Amino acid sequence: MQVSKRLSTIPIYIIGGNKTINGFNSVTWFLLIMCLSILLGSGCIEQYNPPIKGNTEFLVIDGCIIKGEELQTVYISKSTALNDVNINWVTGCVVWAVDANGETFVYEEGSDGIYHSNIPLEKLNYGSQFMINVTTPDGTEYASDFETIYESSPVDSLYFIEESYQSSSVVSHSGLQYYTDLKAGENATGYYRWVIEETWEHHSPYLISEMRYSDDYRGSIFFDEPTDSLSVCYSTKEVPEVYTATTDNLTSNEKKKIPLIYASGLKLNYNYSVLIKQYALGKNAFDYWSKAQVIVSEGGGLHQTQPSAIISNLWNVNDPDEIVLGYFWTSSYSERRLNFKGPLNEIVAENCELYEMDPEDPPLFEPIYFDENGMIASPICFDCTYSGGSLTKPDFFE
Amino acid sequence: MKNPLIQNVGVFLRKSDYMKKSILAFLFVMITVITYGQRQYVTFSDSLKGKGFSAFVEELEKQTSYKILFRKDWVEDVNVNIPDDNLEVSEALKLILKENGLNFYIDKQNNVIVYPGKEIVVSLPDYFSDSKAAQGSNIENYDTVTELEKRHIEGKKTIRPTVIKVGNSKGIVNGKKCAVRGRITDEETGQGLIGATIYIESEELGAATDLDGYLNLMLKQGDYEAVVRSMSMKEKRFYLDVTSDGSFSIALMKENYSINEVKVVVGTNNNVSGMQMGFERMTSKSIKDIPMVMGEQDILKVAQMLPGVQSAGEGASGLNVRGGTADQNMFYINKIPVYNTSHLFGFFSAFSSDIINAFSLYKSNIPAKYGGRLSSIFDISTRSGNKKEFYGKGGISFVTGHLAVEGPIKKDKSSFVLNYRGTYSDWLLSQIDDIDIQNSDASFYDLSASFNTEINQKNALKTFFYRSSDHFSLASTDDYSYENTGISLNWKHLFSSSLNGDLSLVHSQYGNKHDGKDNPSEAFTHEFKLNHSELRADLLYNTKKDHLFAFGLNSIYYHQNRGDVLPYNMESTRIPIEMGKEQGLEFALYASDEFSLLPNLKINAGLRFSMFSYLGANDVNLYFNDSPKDENNIKEVKSYGSGEVIKTYSSLEPRILLNYQLSPNNAIKGSYNRNKQYVFMLSNTIAMSPTDMWKLADYHLKPPVSNQLSIGYYHNFPFKGLEVSIELYQKNMDNIVEYKDGVDFLSDKPTEMQLLQGEQKVQGMEFMLKKTTGRLSGRMSYTYSKSMVKVAGDSPSETINNGLAYPSNYDRPHSFNFAATLRSNMRLSFSTIVDYSTGRPITYPITSYQSNGQEILYYSTRNAYRIPDYFRIDLSVNLEGNLRRKKAIHSFWTLNVYNVTGRKNAYSVYYESEGGQMQAYKMSIFAQPVVSLSWNFKFGNYASE
After folding, report:
1. Share of chain B above pLDDT 70, in %
2. What would the pLDDT profile of A235-247 be if each residue is shown by its tens digit?
3. Is A143 within 8 Å of A96 (Cβ atoms)?
4. B207, B345, B700, B767: most buried by Cβ count inside 10 Å?
5. CB atoms within 10 A of CB A52
6. Residues of A in contact with B436 (CB under 8 A)
């Protein structure tokens, strides 16, 4: 049961070391409660499109050098208006990295705006320092600060706790809140960031008896037995959230119960797996990512602070006033995977009612799938690849 | 002895039956002449005071032609303690005898027969004489006469001005002006009336009463026709017969609403002739008619209806006056400073309307006696308690319940007021079908107690205790609590009729506590406490040369514990931080004089000298010159011992106001004002939050200062009850506090590394139209203003917005407010509020980009955008129970609809990342009309409200 967007659901969702619940700080949260109490749950939040004017195109240089990776990548693009989902890649740049010894490593453009370099693995050590240089096709030169590769201690633990939350539609169900504990050595860095990749198995609800590629019967495939070959898929996705933590205010370089992803819904019906990569950062890179985290998760309320400017470590060599976005960072990482065998709650996909095809009407979908009774529904209800993912079972699921 | 000639007879009669009435009037005049032709006065010498009744009788018989007949055993306990030095005989007798349960009757031969028990009604009341009320006695003894009869009788009376004598022949100094001190009281309760005015037409001279109902006038010897007015009281005309320095007192009666009569009341002259600018005074009566959300009357919400006063948003605590931050306002309740004026984060104010008598707001010309805040002073005075009868009131709304009682401790001498207000809002939270909300709880209360004693005519003592407390716990993640507690002791002393003074001792404490339990490793508890101890002496001296001097001093000792950040429990590994204690001493001297420079030009010139010392023990970081204050630039750390002066700031603050009166109903005023603030709040959020701490100016942080210039035009339309004013102002502030990015107040990082100081410029125009009389009353105001902040430090890290000016968080150029009440009849009234203002500034993200798979936002320059404009209409209906006089409980219902149009006003606009795409959302708190019903009641002497 999917309820309207996120705010009517109010899951307890604590991000990083930031005192926010579901992206709100507690006072705003209280006000929201007031609104909900008075209006019985309606009308407090609605979509809004602020009128934004002026220049929104800035150069974005984004890249990292990660110890243990074969291929290092730098992305160069122009920023876009908020509602523009496209990325305006900048092609034809000259990109090279320099280490502390002055050795240079040239990047080559793969696809548009994406530049790769094979920096030899033996050059990537704890304590190694790198910077990058970019010259755009119009000849403007950009450079970054030197960044150090810090050592990441192994992921101490990854676990989840079943936490229930409430939806405005009164149907309550639970999800999994993942946590990690951090145990870094006394000499290790105190700044970390986690990148999370989740993989889930999903099934289409009906099996296919007939596939019809067009309404003139030219390309129909019939199966004697309804086939399950397209009904089980595995989707993998990087979670588009920033998770950071620091042990700055703590007596030891350890921190417990750092909240990560909150998983719920259809994803937990079958096999589900979470892979976390724990990146060790320097102070500056941490500041960058933790500000990015705050900005992603809050803004605008009366009890929220002024958004702070995210400070890039890149600049135009000849014009320091030019706004350059993005960050160049270096790191090492350790990783850990945790599988969950569903279902947690058996949740049924919506919009999969079967109905009879009306020969008079032109087909809505292509191809058309029929079940064993000759009923049709949206292809997504027969072929799981329509919802993304592959049919190959990953090896971490037995 | 002068005999007042009866004037104005018949003026108040309607034309149609003029003839009939004038004959009647003539008859009354005749009677008057006969009975009161020999009105005689008795002068009290000091030797008489405190003596027995016999001595008084002897003196009286010596001075007048009266003969007193009495039985000795009745008057054994009678003491003569007469306040005024010159009294009419029957008044004097009444004052002396009433207290002892005795009554008297005067026959035509001037024989006075004293007897015990109730007054004997020997005849129909003859005509209405103000003189009976004039000395504060109660003539409303109509037990034997029905209301209808009373009206019938009174309707036929003429109003004959009384003569009040001031001074005596001994004090006569020929040719010099006399200092006349007056007190105007509510006849029913005996309490002083605030803001009541006296006006002497022949001299074009007026004065208004202070918080205790006193006023001062300078008059030459002679007879004056004076008129006294106060809101919702009957105006009273009388003659002042001034012979020397002296005092008088006069009691006003409640104005009764009459349905068939249309009354034209001349508006008060305050707006035009008053020596104030940017000033508002509202009494509990005017507050009562304004509709409120959730059925609560709230003076801070009322204040937001005034031009130049705004809040950051719905449900935000604190007020922003003329573009300033919330901490630039001082709130005094009976001289106790209140550092957090909100309940439930700002939904309610911390002042229960049950006990509020009046509040005054100074926003442009702050009198020299006040200081220490840049934007405004709110001076709230509470009821001083009914000295005659017990009285109570209370009410129930769906969130709170409140009750206040007051009454005499010793009749006519001392009184008390007690109040309590509490919430039961938890049931609301438990209605929400969510486990975390059900596990949250919110509670608050406020209470006060005051005791007032008039020791004698020259000394009065007031004690006031106040406390407000809030607690809120959010699921299992955060606990907040905060509390204001204060006590004030005030001694009012009359040195002479021209010199009086107030001496006050005040202690106030504000504290807050926050337990953050989000993350077990980081869980912490922190408690902050601020102590404010104040001594102040204020004197008022009325010289013979038309000068009104005010002078005095005040001294504040601040002591605050910024608190320790401690691990919440064993599981937490939070590093304990001791944020330290700090103390400081503020001292100020002031003097001001109000006088006429030219016949039409009045001036109030004042000077305040303030100084502040930041005291040890503390360690101070000294930084290298010309380098940013951060960890890398510390030159040395200097330690100061306990009580040692670390840094002293001082300031001369001129306060000047000119009033040029073009005509009795037109005036131009101008003022200049400087203020310095030695204590400010650490808050980097737009609205005040319950965890905000205060900070004293210290070695590095300079006290903010403001210079304000205002000019205004004021016009009254007396016969329409309309007042119009327009004010222009320019306020420049320096050393205002801003914050670096990512500031964390719960760290051991020195404050100077986290704060920046800049300048702010505010300009504005405020227009107001007020209608104070008639069945339809209300106000309308429009404000245009601009408030810009600039922080340009020496290095990029000490600069905000690249050193360019940006709109302050409280810059809302257009603001329109309208509030009106229509009284349909005595029991039913309707009121409405319209509130419009430009949306507050906001910093929006203008573009987004991908960084390592994350969508990241890039923001505009600071406050470059605005949230949508705010607009709201409220309606309310007030229905009173029947108005029978002899009812145990008198109650009224208020039905209020907040946000009638259901406009979804933006409280905030924020962005959410949804699958990598940014979407903006608008949050509204009251997104639908909110209906609330409340029931309020009064018992006891309820007529006094």
Report:
1. 83
2. 998 887 888 998 8
3. no
4. B345
5. 17
6. 10, 12, 166
Contacts of A328 (CB under 8 A, 6+ apart): A61, A62, A63, A64, A74, A131, A132, A144, A145, A147, A313, A314
| B150: confidence class by pLDDT, cuts 50, 70, 90 | low
* A 50-69 residues inside an 8 A Cβ radius of B: 50-52, 54, 56-58, 60, 62, 64
Helix axis angle, B53-63 relative to B89-98, nearest 10°?
170
Answer yes or no: do A302 and B855 touch at CB < 8 A: no
Instruction: Quote the tokens at residue B870.
Output: 């705010």
**pLDDT reported for residue B780:** 92
Helix (H, G, I), strand (E, B) or coil at B59: helix
**Across the interface, do A304 and B685 touch by the CB < 8 Å criterion?**
yes
Q: What amino acid occupies position A136?
A: T
Is A380 an 8 Å CB contact of chain B? no
B70-90 pLDDT, tens digit per residue, is: 877 777 777 776 655 667 777
Question: Is the preceding peptide bond at B792 cis, omega within 30 degrees of 0?
Answer: no
CA angle B876, B881, B883 (to 5 degrees): 125
Among the listed residues A204, A340, A196, A338, the one whose alpha carbon sits nearest the alpha carbon of residue A271: A340
**Bridge partners, B764 (sequence order):** B729, B785
Q: What is the pLDDT of residues B524-554, one digit of tens each?
A: 999 999 999 999 999 999 876 778 899 999 9
Q: Name the closest residue on chain B to residue A83, using Cα atoms.
A: B918
**pLDDT band for position B312 (cuts 50, 70, 90):** confident
Chain B (304-323) residues lying within 8 Å, Cβ to Cβ, of chain A: 312-313, 315-316
Give residue for tokens 């795409």.
Answer: B917
Q: A255 and B519: CB-CB below 8 Å?
A: yes
d(CA A125, CA B450): 74
**Separation CA B764–CA B174 (nearest Å):** 50
pLDDT band at B49 (very low <50, low <70, confident <90, very high): low
How far lies B281's CA from each of A379, B358, B623, B767, B921, in Å? 72, 7, 48, 16, 40
pTM of this prediction exceeds 0.80: no
- Cis before A343 (ω within 30): yes
Q: How far apart are CA B138 and CA B186, in angstroms?
A: 11
Q: What phi-psi label fits residue A230: left (phi over 0), alpha (psi between -120 and 50 degrees) or beta? A: alpha
Candidates B432, B691, B840, B847: best to mutate against A (most CBs of A within 10 A) is B847
CA dist A332 and A191 (Å) reads 12
Residue B138 CA to residue B121 CA, distance in Å, equals 15
- Which residues lie below 8 Å from residue B350, measured CB to CB, with a gap of 6+? B338, B340, B341, B342, B343, B446, B468, B484
Q: In degrees, to the nearest 5, what angle opens at C-alpha B400 toward C-alphas B397 and B405?
A: 95
Task: Give the Cα separation of B793 and B795 in Å (integer).
Answer: 6
Collapse the DSSP code of B53 into the 3-class scheme (helix H, G, I; strand E, B; otherwise coil) and give the result: helix
Residue labelled with tokens 């989902």: A85
Residues whose CB is less than 8 angstroms from the CB of residue B265 and which lie 6 or more positions away in sequence, other chains included: B229, B235, B721, B773
A339 touches chain B (CB under 8 A): no
Rg (alpha carbons) of chain B, rounded to whole number:
31
Assess contact for B702 and B678: CB atoms under 8 A: no
For A285, residues 6+ apart whose C-beta sits below 8 A from its C-beta are: A147, A191, A193, A327, A329, A330, A331
User: Any chain A CB within 8 A of the CB of B797?
Assistant: no
